[in-house]
Structure formats: structure tokens, C-alpha cells
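In response to reviewer comment 3 from the previous cycle, which asked for concrete evidence that the modeling workflow produces usable outputs, we include below a single protein chain processed end to end. The sequence was submitted unchanged, and the resulting C-alpha cells are shown without manual editing.
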Amino acid sequence: MIKPSNGRIVWYTPDRASDSDHEIAQHNQMVPLAAMVAHVWGDRMVNLVVFDSNGAMRARTSVTLLQDDDAKPEGGRFCVWMPYQLGQAAKTEALEAKLGG
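The workflow returned the following C-alpha cells.
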């Protein structure tokens, strides 16, 4: 599990059934949107600044941050770590295990 912190970049998937997420331009719904963590509520709940496909910024509060093998909500409105960050976390864990063992 990666500990969230302010300023970290995540991928956001909007909830297309939500009226508030209709204002977010997403030209390709198969591609998540870039977002930045603005506040951390816990390991699985954050506030975000979401950048839509046109570069407009939108605030989203209390967004579920999926960790490890968490199931994706069917409707959307969640965020995940970018593959790069997952790779960096894995490298860090491997190095810590090597140094500790």
C-alpha cells in the first residue's frame, strides 16, 4: 500500500451518472484523467484537483483511492496510482527487503 500525500499524482475515473462529473470533459472515457491529491483523509480517501481533457481544473472531495487489489466501483468516481508510482513503490520495497535481510 502506498501512503497518499498532498501533491501526489493519481489517475481519476469520473462517475458518468453523477451530475457534478458531467462538467468534466473526458474525450476518451477509456483513458483516466490526471489529478493531484489536495488533501488526505486516510489511506483510501482523498480530495483531488482533477484536470479534464481540456486542461480545466475541477475539485473533487472524498474520492476513493483504490489500493492493492481493491475492486473498482462500477460507476466510477475513484482514483488509482499511476503505473510509474506503483513501480517506484515496488523498487523501494525490494531495496528495503534487501537491506533489511
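The chain has one domain: 9-100. We consider this sufficient to address the reviewer's concern, and the full set will be provided in the supplementary archive.
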